[in-house]
Amino acid sequence: HGACDCGKCRCDGGWSGDACQYPKTCDLTKKQSNQMCKNSQDIICSNAGTCHCGRCKCDNSDGNGLVYGKFCECDDRECIDDETEEICGGHGKCYCGNCYCQAGWHGDKCEFQCDITPWESKRRCTSPDGRVCSNRGICVCGECSCHDVDPTGDWGDIHGDTCECDERDCKAVYDRYSDDFCSGKCECGECTCYPPGGSRVYGKTCECDDRRCEDLDGVVCG
């Protein structure tokens, strides 16, 4: 709806906005327009903007463009460090209200500096198979934060110093809220089948039990 001239949009007639995204005239009713501006919680423009013909115009009184998104759902003001008043403390980048810190920094707003080098941090987080946090978590100052965290606050289905243990491997059909992990004991994603030392119960998830083929006299398949 326009042309770009030296980094700025020159809008065609009937259109306005930094990206020529807002029509000056609207064929929608106010109800139709507002419906198109509702986010997944049915909140118009996430209470962070106003609706114009089915499109959200985000609040931006400071001129820095810190509130954005189709429904104004991203608020990068949440990334501002109260002490330094900088985005992510000047040590990271903000995307949709979350800080992504540079190497050597951590914290919600990248406000803490690691006391070890990035190389040492990576070394401590590297699992025996050579992957950082086993590709199941993120490394923060030499400690792995595993992606799968149990809602109770205890270790979850993925755990271990380098997130090397995945208890979901113990189930043929996985249900994280079920206690039915294999028919034996699950430890670090591997099943130890019951009875211990017996060869009649086997399989990755102890799914094979040849005892079922025995009659009362212990004869297999009659």
From TrEMBL:
Pfam (any one): EGF_2
Domain Epidermal growth factor-like: 79-110
Keywords for this protein: Disulfide bond, EGF-like domain, Glycoprotein, Repeat, Signal
Gene Ontology cellular component terms for the protein in this record: cell surface; focal adhesion; integrin complex
A GO term, aspect molecular function: integrin binding
PROSITE patterns: I_EGF_1, I_EGF_2
Domain Integrin beta epidermal growth factor-like: 33-73
Gene3D superfamilies named in the record: Laminin, Tie2 ligand-binding domain superfamily
A Gene Ontology BP annotation from the UniProt entry: cell-matrix adhesion
Protein name in UniProt: Uncharacterized protein
Organism in which the protein naturally occurs: Monodon monoceros (Narwhal)
Source organism phylogeny: Eukaryota, Metazoa, Chordata, Craniata, Vertebrata
